[in-house]
Design brief:
By secondary structure, the chain is mainly α. Helices cover 68% and strands 2% of the residues. The protein contains 9 helices and 2 strands, in the order E-E-H-H-H-H-H-H-H-H-H.
């Protein structure tokens, strides 16, 4: 290693001090500073997460409502496709989806296809707007009127998309008889829930969708 000729106390030169000692020390300081700026292994702190969520939520609040309507309509169609995929998979296995069975398990595994289409297509569901836009309002980056408009538009056009999809698949011979029977059985089972059961299921569904965002 190259060395510098530094005089020692007795006037002799010391060959043991490397010429890049100062450079190494500077590099170590820079590396320590860089590591200090990196996020912790556990991720961001809670205030940073909320701030980032509010920033993203503000973008949603300030989007044109026409764009929200289009993406929400497509979102309703997309998630409806997942329901049809579930029904058709269950019918292919044989058995009903209105009670615990292998058919219900298979159908449930196929159901997320609708959400994959939704995410890839960047469409939108009403239940996606419970965290980010609310955080934006709390942080003062939006207001209640904007939040209410976003909720009203996305919910309305989600339902319109679902109704449109239901209308299309209810046309004669759009589906084979077996999936139609499964669909009717599932719909009948779903509307038979009492209010308490429906509320609990809705809470968990909303929580999962919020976690997804």
């Amino acid at each position: 290693m190259p060395s510098s000729k530094n005089p020692s106390n007795d006037g002799a030169f010391n060959d043991d001090i490397p010429i890049n000692a100062g450079t190494n020390a500077q590099e170590q300081d820079d590396e320590a500073e860089f590591e200090a700026k990196q996020p912790s292994p556990l991720g961001q702190e809670a205030p940073e997460i909320i701030d980032e969520a509010s920033r993203i939520g503000a973008k949603r609040l300030y989007r044109p409502l026409v764009g929200d309507a289009i993406t929400a309509f497509a979102g309703g169609m997309s998630v409806s496709f997942g329901a049809i995929a579930m029904i058709m998979a269950a019918a292919a296995v044989g058995g009903g989806v209105d009670s615990p069975s292998i058919a219900l398990l298979v159908g449930s595994l196929v159901f997320p296809v609708g959400f994959i289409i939704l995410l890839v297509g960047k469409t939108e569901l009403f239940t996606e707007n419970f965290l980010l836009p609310v955080a934006a309002v709390i942080k003062g980056r939006g207001n209640i009127r904007q939040l209410g408009s976003l909720w009203a538009v996305t919910l309305s056009f989600n339902l319109l998309g679902c109704l449109t999809f239901a209308f299309l698949i209810s046309r004669e011979q759009a589906l084979a008889p077996e999936p139609v029977e499964e669909m009717i059985a599932l719909a009948t089972h779903s509307i038979d829930y009492n209010l308490g059961t429906a509320f609990v299921k809705a809470v968990f569904a909303g929580w999962l969708m919020t976690t997804l965002t």
